[in-house]
Amino acid sequence: MNILEEIVAHKRKEVSEKKNLFPVRLLEQSIFFHTQSVSLKKYILREDKSGIIAEIKRKSPSKGVINPNVSIERTSIGYMQAGASALSVLTDTKFFGGKNEDLTTARKFNFCPILRKDFTVDEYQIIEAKSIGADAILLIAAVLTPEEVKSLAKLAHSLGLEVLLEVHNEAELERSFNEYIDLLGVNNRDLASFKVDLNTSISLSEKVPHGVVKVAESGINQPEDIELLKSHGFEGFLIGERFMRSARPEKSAESFIEKLSLHDKVNYAKA
Ligand SMILES: O=P(O)(O)OC[C@@H](O)[C@@H](O)c1c[nH]c2ccccc12
């Protein structure tokens, strides 16, 4: 079993236990359940924003412990003040050290799109994402059948959530893309081997259907990487470790985005 298969096997078990402890009807009573979502797509395309989806990630299977004691409040507010377009919050506990409350905390302190980053394999998790205050969910093509991608994406839309479909190669893109996908993410990290290569995004850029927002994910380390990805049509940039490995991730994001502004000769709006 590779790590991705291990994560998904564990996730299925976790979700079936949760369904008993905390049934869907309770999720639907959450204070966030009936609130309007903020569009991730729109914020990424805003000219006055950097396009960066800044991620909160405490640890990962590939990098081990990154920043276990991060302050969600300070980091999420700081990321947005630095000029990020949106937040990504890892809620998986076992492998990434996150929790649902991390997203709820980020939600309380920010009016901005929040991507719930988890391994979604069941409808329950989509209702849960809405209940904790997410605006968008991630679907990973490598762990779902095309039929599952479609039905999960359709459910997400019915709850007002946008869908970021993550692919790693052309076969996944062709197989899993459907009319319910709002954003297409190309993960530069191979989740089976952990190898990172920005060329994964570049080589797939032309294959992404028109009108879908293109997001490059993982391994983005310097403002020049964003310039290169932009020149290949990418509009969104998901960045985790580059910021999180600093004791103050929001400061790291601020200086990164300042450098990017100099390159782009624009002043990205402070949220
Ligand atoms: O820390 P990085 O290399 O900047 O990567 C961020 C993000 O792309 C990565 O965390 C990620 C992309 N897809 C995922 C799926 C699950 C968990 C995590 C991820």
TrEMBL record:
Q: Which GO terms describe its biological process?
A: L-tryptophan biosynthetic process
Q: Which residues form the Indole-3-glycerol phosphate synthase domain?
A: 4-254
Catalysed conversion reaction: 1-(2-carboxyphenylamino)-1-deoxy-D-ribulose 5-phosphate + H(+) = (1S,2R)-1-C-(indol-3-yl)glycerol 3-phosphate + CO2 + H2O
What GO annotations for molecular function exist for this entry?
A: indole-3-glycerol-phosphate synthase activity; phosphoribosylanthranilate isomerase activity
Give EC number(s), comma-separated: 4.1.1.48
Name it.
Answer: Indole-3-glycerol phosphate synthase
InterPro entries given for it?
A: Aldolase_TIM, Indole-3-glycerol_P_synth, Indole-3-glycerol_P_synth_dom, Indole-3-GlycerolPSynthase_CS, RibuloseP-bd_barrel
Give the record's family classification. Answer: Belongs to the TrpC family.
- The organism is Fulvivirga sediminis
Pfam families linked:
IGPS
Tell me the route in metabolism or biology where this protein functions: Amino-acid biosynthesis; L-tryptophan biosynthesis; L-tryptophan from chorismate: step 4/5
What does the UniProt keyword field contain? Answer: Amino-acid biosynthesis, Aromatic amino acid biosynthesis, Decarboxylase, Lyase, Tryptophan biosynthesis
